[in-house]
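Researcher: Good morning. I'm working through a list of sequences from a screen, and I'd like to move beyond sequence-only analysis. For each chain I'm collecting a predicted structure so we can compare shapes side by side. This is the next one on the list. No need for commentary yet; just the structure.
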Amino acid sequence: MVELLKILVAAVVGAGLTMFVGDWRSARDTGLLRADGLRRAVREYSSAVSEYAQAWASYSAGSLPSDEAVARTGAELDAQLRRYELLRKKWRVPTRLRTELATAPLGDALCAGWGGTSPGDRAARGQTIDSALADLRDGCEELALALERPGRSHSEMRA
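Model: Good morning. Structure tokens for this chain:
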């Protein structure tokens, strides 16, 4: 009877460990995919914004630079961040990043007020936008790293 009990306990412990490792691997793989999607979205948004700001900085005549790519990639990045805001309700970083994305110098202010300014003012505005983009990219990378590491407390995400 004691031998049977030992075998049953070992089988239950083994099954429990197998389930735990399988769940952890699944969470890790999901986190890797989510982090990759976030990195892609912020890279595409950053590229679109940089190209838009550079087009305005060098603008002299002709058709105005299009903000279509900025709007599209910004909406995609916002959707990614909104997903993590919903999935990780205790994490404050996705909300902070969405706020950065929606406020000046990014957000609606990004595509307004370029006309009628001097080339020097446009270049200075481009530098301000580049700085805001760098902060946004750094925050998204911090979030991506947390998504890749399931099962940890991630206290840095709550700040």
